[in-house]
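> tool_call: predict_assembly(chains=two)
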Amino acid sequence: MTTLSRPIGAPGGGALAIAWSRVWRARRLVERNIMVYRHQWLIIFSGVFEPIFYLAGIGLGLGGIVQTVPLADGRLVAYAAFVAPALLATAAMNGAVFETIFNVFFKLNFAKTYDGVLATPMGITEIAIGEMLWALMRSALYAVAMFFIMWAFGLILSPWGVLMIPAALLVAAAFSAAGLAGTSYLRSVNDFDVPMGLIVMPMFLFSGTFFPISIYPWFIQAFMQATPLYHSISLIRGLSTGIVGPAQAWDLVYLVAFFAFFMWLAMRQMERKLIK
Amino acid sequence: MSPHPSLVHARGLTKRYPNGFTAVDGVDFDVRPGKAFGFLGPNGAGKTSTMRMIACSSPVTEGELSVIGMDPRTQAREIKARLGVVPQIDNLDTELTVRENLEMYARYFDIPGDVARRRTDELLEFVQLDERARDQVEPLSGGMKRRLTIARALINEPDLVILDEPTTGLDPQARHLLWERLYQLKRRGATLIITTHYMDEAEQLCDHLVVMDKAHIVAEGSPRQLIDEHSTREVLELRFPDGVRENLDGRLDGLADRIEELPDRLLLYTADGEHTLDQVKQRDIPIESALVRRSSLEDVFLRLTGRSLVE
């Protein structure tokens, strides 16, 4: 019977070994999602074009009038170089949010996919981390595509810009954790309007995406600085323009803490929803 | 923990939901290897809650439960690795094809790709879905989905297969095909746990049964034992013309061991149904129709709870 009692994937036992075995097992859910999307790659690819359209539409359009924008350190840069890193951050957010809200809601409430998965050695931790990793991969595709466009058009102003990719992964991790946690509170498809219309959309407009937040009154600025997208944009724009200081360190801390809290909440909520 | 000879061992097993409802109230049972073990009872008796606790998908509130010698509280993943679960409501992956459903499920169990493909081929043949391998799941009939769910539950070559109401909602032909497949599975030596509210299903498939009602186990034994213990050999079913039944005035007294009154007929429990029918006729009681049959589990259930299984 001793062979039966051994925890799966953890020959020596120990909390760390068990935790790692769960994270490692989570890749199965990524495999599952790849299997699903093998037939429908276009859906994912469509997201690549969104930031490019914004860059072409607003970057060139507004850029024709505005021309230069002051950065936090007082330098003046071309409008396109100002807005492109924000669009990269937003693309990372959108990939993560769409995946964890719409697709996870469907699997959680309609298809009952996770009920089937939970009858295997996969647990809640594996499902939550698996969906987070998959959302991360989707976001990474958008971020990398945007990175090369910025590079091709000379919009990356600093060697720090290379770090935009790992930073975008952190942004995607933070938003996918929030998406997973938020989805568990949604009861019907109509509830989608709340996160999309009241949270994601206003955040997109009011997080310093298109304008430096210094042009707003202080109380709006305070509100903006509390949002995760503000910190995502501040971090990624900092890397792309070579502003790397205490503000960016704070962005990093904020995003890591945001990720940790919402990942914890997501797992607790999924457990409540799936284990009765 | 001491290893148990039984695959599932429960003592005082209790499930209480957060809303205070007690679905399972202190039940004891043991499932022996190589047998088909059945939970028979009406909807809401606590069968599914018991199954979900065994399958580690619902935490045990109180009592002792060991599954394949392990504790669901601390070794859920290890137990699930060796179980096959067919839930009451199909939860196949609707975004994958028939074949992908099995191959992907194998991956959740860490079964290597080549083994997964080989088992998928074998199982699709076993449940007679090999010709639908490349199809989507949604257009399949109810019976086909059930068979695919059963194939999926067998992908890890489980020591114990749990089937929650495997044929509910299927047409008679699909039920018989499914029973035949489950019978084959039993012959191969698999241990099955089946819940059902169909007595014919319990009689056909189960070696050992527990009868559940209102969160409790009310009887236990083989289908034959249960009938012998709790019912007579035969049953005489009588229907009367209008107005007769209300005015019987005890004229059936002494004819049967026990008389059960159903809304549309009376059941007379007796060793020899034909003989009892003759006696009824001798007493000049007008009858619309009479049927003599052997006692079934339905009669056992009626006797034990005063209610029918399927209402």
